[in-house]
Amino acid sequence: MQIVYIDDNASSRILVRRVLEAHGHTVVEFDNGVAGLEWLKECPIAPDALLLDIDMPDFDGFMTVASLRQDGRLRDLPVVFVTADVTRPTMERVAELGIDVIVKPIDVSRFVSQVRQACARARAKGEAA
Amino acid sequence: MKTEAISNLFAPPGGIDDRARQRGQTLGVFIAATLAIGVGVVIWNVLAWSSTGLTDLILDILLFPVLAIPAYLNRRGRVDAAAVVFLVMTIALCSLFPIDKLDRVLIVYTFPVMTASFILRPGASVAAALACVALYSALYRWHPVGQTYNMVFAFALIALSVVAYFVSHSLERAFDALHRSEQRYRAIVEGQLEMVCRFSPDFRVTYANEAARRVLGWGRDLESANFLDVLPPDQADFLRRQIDALDLKTGSVLYEYQVGEGERAVWYQWSVRAIAPADDTTEFQAVGRDITSLKTAQRLRELHEIKSRFLAAMSHELRTPLNAIIGFSDVLLQGLDGPLTDPQRQDVTMIGESGRHLLGLINDILDVSKLQAGKMRMAFGPVNLAALCESVASSGVGLLKDKPGVALRNRTPASLPMVWGDETRIRQVLFNLLSNAAKFTEAGEIELSACPAGDFVQVGVRDTGCGIPPEKQESIFEEFVQADDSSTRRHSGTGLGLPISRRFVEMHGGRMWVESVVGQGSVFYFTLPIARPNPPDPGGKRVVVAVDDDPTAIAFYCRLLEARDFCVVGVLDATWALDVARRVHPVVILLDVLMPQLDGWSVLRSLKETPETRNVPVIICSCVDSQAVSLGAADCLVKPISEQDLLNAMQRLETPPRRKGKKNVLIVDDSPSDVALMRRILEAQRVYRVLEALDGQAGIEAVQTQTLDVVILDLIMPVLDGFEVLEAIRREKGDALPVIVVTAKDLTEEDKARLNGKIQAILSKSSVTHNLAATIALLSGAGRGKA
Question: How far apart are CA B221 and CA B273, in angstroms?
């Protein structure tokens, strides 16, 4: 799979890249939502999934998702949140959006399968809608 | 003074209320007076022996012991009883004897005076006495008074005194009530903890209750008190402006201010409004109170909020670096960066374990903070405890990987009833108890067991660890306590696991406790309530009872049927099915067959044997053989059940199939599996006879030879494709025969142009399962029984 990962935390980006690449996936990473969105819009072939941190300065995960959903081509791109923010308000917003979330610290041994499952669910939801 | 001393002999002692004692004293005076008169009469009689008879003398002497009765009652404080006896006695004496004797006169005189002064006020009593004497003298002078007049007079007096009594009594009661109510309100206002003041428009205080006088330092004399003086200067100005701007009829001013600083700060709140604004006597009433504790509580709440936010933020901030610590140590351990040497592996394991420990701490602290703030929310629902125990036990094996001498056994029976709870929290409790047991057990076994106990399921986690001394068995459930402080170094832990677990169990309505013997081990028990189906109020909707041990199946039925205005009552434990069905009067019962507590066939049998439920149609869902209908089921559906299957089945129950008028449907499709699927969908409707043609040629032949109602046509077929078949149909039958195109092909503009006007509907193959039945019903006019 080709996966885009947006997170402002460098160590998280390196970790996720390491884990995903070890399983044969390619990872494109960005440290903010704006740059990630720009790349996504320019990219001729949409990637297979977007992993997205929520709590980022200026342009957070929710805003990123909102912009994505307005884009005709990227609307159905499977999105999975990867976040350390487990507070209720955040989790409620996530649940409202119907997006799967993987909580940090990630479980390295299960991470890839979690991502795969979450993407499958997101894709199924996109098709149903 | 002397008469008073004598009268006190007959008056009641202190201890009764003031008014009664006053009356008793009056009564005592008259008893004493009567006695004195009686003594005089006796002496007179003795001296005038010749003119009176012996009988009179004896009777007069008898008067004394009789007088002793009211005297006695009066002394005992029973003033009213004494008065009544005195009255009756006096009347009796008056009526018994001829009136023309001085002694009787005196007695008769005593009676009205006594009555009047006892019942009425002193002024009235004098008047009454004079009136009585005058009346009596008149009667005595102008009439030869005899026995008869004597009686009339006595009864007139009785009537008079009774009227006088009631009039004065009701007056007195009215005055009393007024007085008491005034007293009561005065006491309320005076005894208020809140300060109550009144002040005139120039802020001179006209009234202040006790609290206000105390707090504001005013004496009883409010001469110099000014309401503005008690306020800090800025507040005084504020109040003056507010009062000036106040709408006297409806407005009120509410303001708060602080006196003193820091620890000793006191907050006051005043509300001021105008009283009697209509006339010139406008006054303001101010009610003030000390709201320091309110302010403190408010501040505490704010602090608590800050604490919660801090903890949430801390959790977030700590998780981010932990993500790297735990994640990278796992990356190393999994060899993603190449093989590790044994010492390296050990080191990295330590790093990862410590990270995980820290994570556990953060989670526990967050839980405790939520519990303390009462913000822990539970998602209650039916929980399969047996399955949960199994799952926790299998993940618990990992806890013992360094302890080969300890075995973990799960002895939970599979037949446990469902419990009512939050699955995540119950899992947390179970895992916590297992990890505690694992932590403190060096050899032996850890056993997980459970059994139903009344309305609860009791779960036990037994270990053969070091045990807990009796005096510590309660304190381990307190926050930040471990049984053995010295073992803290050996057994790391927050000491929060047990308190959190106990709170979770208590929030389920259960309890948690420990039984333990030092050196032999401990058993931690907790109880969880058995899930009892509590049927919701259908609110006029048609009720469907869904019996299934799988909560997701029930959720599926709910989602589907509640959108169509049914009320679904889910029953997870089949043993409750009959009971629920009897109570809620369902229109349909959906029944699973394979359930752990009781199989569906037994449920079906008992439903059919019970009068109330005998006529309720039952749809067996997950039917595995054909005995369903013979056992009385109305229908059976095979799991996985699609939305359409279920809705069709429900609809069949409502509109009985019209078997004689079946519609003929021809399916022209080269894929046998697609044909089979469509056949199943159509036959489930029970109003269609399905004919098949597996290629275009066979299709055209069928159209020529059979009477058809609808044709379902695939476009992509070898040799003769759908377009050609369609042309043939239109040549053969004109536009009379409806054709539905079902295709997997993405139609091009050219295709659409070729089909335009010749077909009645297009369905993509992926939407066939959802849409075919409805489409065909629409086109063939079938299944529209009700609509």
Answer: 23
Burial of B269 (0-12, 13-18, 19+ CB in 10 A): middle
**Residues B8-23 pLDDT 10s:** 666 666 555 666 666 6
**Distance from chain centroid for Cα B370:** 22
Q: Which secondary-structure segment (H or E) carries B288? A: strand B283-290
Chain B residues close to A106, C-beta within 8 Å: 323, 326-327
Strands B381-383 and B205-208, bridge-based pairing: unpaired
| Residue of A108, A113, A114, A127 best to disrupt the B interface, most CBs of B under 10 A | A108
User: In whole angstroms, what is the distance from residue B398 CA to residue B402 CA?
Assistant: 9
- pLDDT, mean over chain B: 77
Q: Residue B523 forms beta bridges with which residues?
A: B462, B515
Q: How far apart are CA B463 and CA B523, in angstroms?
A: 6
pTM score: 0.45
pLDDT of residue B578: 79
Place of tokens 């009469």: B41
Q: What is the pLDDT of residue B416?
A: 85
CA angle (B51, B52, B57) in 5-degree steps: 155
**B654-700 residue pLDDT tens:** 655 444 567 888 899 888 888 888 888 887 777 788 888 888 888 88
Chain A environment of B325 (Cβ under 8 Å): 105
Q: Locate tokens 């993987």: which residue?
A: A102
What is residue B473's three-state secondary structure?
coil
Residue type (1 letter), B301: R
Instruction: For B486-516, write each residue's pLDDT tens digit.
Output: 444 444 566 788 888 998 998 888 889 999 9
Pairing outcome for strands B588-592 and B542-547: parallel
DSSP line for A16-77: HHHHHHHTT-EEEEESSHHHHHHHHHH-SS--SEEEE-S--SSS-HHHHHHHHHHSTTTTT-
Judge whether B689 and B664 are in contact, CB under 8 Å: yes
Query: What burial class does residue B219 get, using C-beta atoms within 10 Å of its C-beta: 0-12 exposed, 13-18 middle, 19+ buried?
Result: exposed
CA distance B368 to A9: 28
Judged by CB atoms closer than 8 Å, whether chains meet at B325 and A105 is answered as yes
* Those residues with Cβ within 8 angstroms of residue B536's Cβ, 6 or more apart along the chain or in another chain: B567, B569
Are A60 and A81 in contact by the 8 Å Cβ rule? The answer is no
Burial code (b: 16+ CB inside 10 Å, e: under 16) for B484-507 equals eeeeeeeeebbbbbbbbbbbbbeb
* Residue the block writes with tokens 């032996």: B444
A108, amino acid identity = V
B666 forms beta bridges with B691, B711
Residues of A in contact with B322 (CB under 8 A): 104-105
Classify B186 as helix, strand or coil.
helix
- Minimum mean pLDDT range among B62-66, B204-208, B337-341: B62-66
For residue A82, the surrounding DSSP H or E stretch is strand A79-83
